[in-house]
Design goal:
With about 240 residues, the protein is of the alpha/beta class. It has ten helices and five strands, in the order αβαβααβαββααααα. It has a five-stranded parallel beta sheet with strand order 2-3-4-1-5. α1 runs parallel beside α2 and α8 packs across α9.
């Protein structure tokens, strides 16, 4: 990510040719692990516009022809904004055309072919880096991940204990600056970044209901309840 951001800055400054910039990648991992956040942060670090898109947003425009036109408009917008970073969410909906049968298979072949045409298009996409986000990269049509398209798969997995502590710190902001968050991070094993953000919201709500400032105990209880754990020391932690 840092390397791609550096390349985008260099391309924007005119010191790196487009031929030397990665064309795209797939961000793959469980729900709530921050794939969209990662892409937006990458665009910000690279100093380029961020253009979000998704299969659902394109499909919402109507029938297959309407969807393809929505896709084309989105890519045209990206080319006008270049250099930029475009994110296609729900990429695994563009699944393997060979495995699909019947009417859905025919529909899917059309939309996958449309996406491939935009990735390779005669109009070109110089300056447009395309990232796809999905939960199941094994379902992707193989043509999407060949060289020159979305040419690598980057795993964004659930955070480890240090990652969970860091994520909690981000969402707490200026609150509980000196608090040790490792106990909460250990309770939160298996939580995604989105779930940890929810824990902080619930802890703040408990503190507001009690009419006092947020305490570490509120976060511990919120994390334990989210995990379905019972805390014998609940009353002590509340006060």
């Amino acid at each position: 990510g840092h390397a791609l951001a550096a390349d985008l800055r260099a391309y924007r400054a005119g010191t790196l040719p487009w031929a030397d910039v990665d064309r795209g990648a797939v961000l793959a991992g469980p729900p709530g692990t921050g794939k969209t956040t990662f892409a937006a942060a990458l665009a910000e670090e690279g100093g380029v516009p961020f253009i979000p898109a998704s299969y659902a947003a394109w499909q919402a425009k109507g029938h297959q022809g309407d969807m393809l036109r929505a896709m084309q408009r989105c890519f045209a917008q990206a080319r006008e904004a270049a250099p930029c970073l475009m994110l296609i969410d729900e990429l695994d909906t563009f699944s393997d055309r060979v495995r699909e049968r019947g009417d859905h298979g025919a529909y899917l072949r059309g939309v996958v072919n449309g996406l491939l045409a935009e990735l390779d298009g005669a109009a070109g996409r110089e300056g447009v880096v395309v990232l796809g986000a999905c939960n199941h990269p094994e379902l992707l049509d193989p043509a999407l991940v060949r060289a020159g398209r979305l040419e690598r798969v980057v795993r964004i997995d659930l955070p480890d204990v240090r990652g969970r502590a860091d994520i909690l710190r981000v969402h707490l902001g200026a609150e509980l600056r000196d608090a040790d968050l490792w106990q909460v991070a250990r309770i939160g094993e298996g939580m995604s970044g989105a779930e940890l953000e929810k824990v902080v919201r619930e802890a703040r709500r408990s503190a507001r209901s009690a009419g006092r400032a947020l305490q570490v105990g509120d976060i511990i209880i919120a994390a334990a309840e989210d995990r379905g754990l019972e805390l014998a020391t609940r009353s002590v932690l509340r006060h």
